[in-house]
Amino acid sequence: MCPTGAFTHTAGAPDADRRLDTVVADHVPACSRSYASLLIQTGRITVGGELKKPSYRVKPGEIIQGAFPLREAPACNPEPIPLDILFEDRHIIVINKPAGMVVHPAPGNYSGTLVHGLLHHCPSLGGVGAEMRPGIVHRLDKDTSGVILVAKQRSVLEQISRQFKARKIKKQYTALVYGRMAADAGEIALPVGRHPVHRKKMSVNSPKGRSAKTLWHVKKRFQHATLLDVDLKTGRTHQIRVHCAAIHHPLVGDTVYAAGRSTLKSSGRAEVDVQNLLKSAPRQMLHARRLELIHPVTLRKMSFTAPLAEDMRTLIERLSQKDPVLAPVPVS
Prior knowledge:
Layout: E1 5-10, H1 20-27, H2 33-41, E2 45-47, E3 63-68, E4 85-88, E5 92-97, H3 114-121, E6 145-151, H4 154-165, E7 170-178, E8 185-189, E9 193-194, E10 202-203, E11 213-221, E12 225-232, H5 239-246, H6 269-279, E13 286-294, E14 301-305, H7 310-322
Parallel strand pairs: 6-13
Antiparallel strand pairs: 1-3, 2-3, 4-5, 5-6, 7-12, 7-13, 8-11, 9-10, 11-12, 13-14
């Protein structure tokens, strides 16, 4: 049996300084702590209307609200899913995640995730970290391809998490955006937080936005699009997608943040061909190209690079033919 429907709980003195997932489990009948943790991670439970981590320490008077789906998530069982492994040793595993693969189980995606494949490849991973996110230190959106790092021991998970928190891990992306960007490089420093109305979206106009910084430089210009190298200085949810949209150059293929950008102003035959080509993008054109870190055990500086995903490479090649390159910018 598992809880269903909505609930609201005002934290009292006995809840003070206790973990959010524990408080929810204690006050909602038939709700396990692991299930509460999963729902908190997926945004179904909030505190004062804000998203929190399962480990958040509750304060008296805070209002905890949530909505439960009809059934509890099934156990996360190993599945023989092929993995493109870029590197592996006893401590970490680095994967080139394909577009379309969800990183960890969540409502609507209880099979076929990266975690299911990792548990088959590395059975001992099951005890590392959160039940539904074993070994996962960071994540990529379902439709973003590229490098993702996974820890194989709890101590390694904690050490890598500290590196992320201290911003010592470098993440670089390749992005194809709408429009011809005038400058050769730039910086976007806008806070990112939950959209005030559309709760599944992020926004730079959120009243609770957190500081975020994205650096970019032009790799190649087309008539109606620009290929960028992006250096992510912070790791907010949807950061690159939200930041690019905020400067009016959303990602090609982004159905959430690029609404209305698939139509070009000109109606000439060449422009129509380019418009149809950009519309054909099967997903947001974003690829996690490179990740750099200090190995948590050997302390060696390491970097991992994933080749551009086939669908994105093909679109760029076709764009080069139909939308000729303008003034190439040298890439350092």
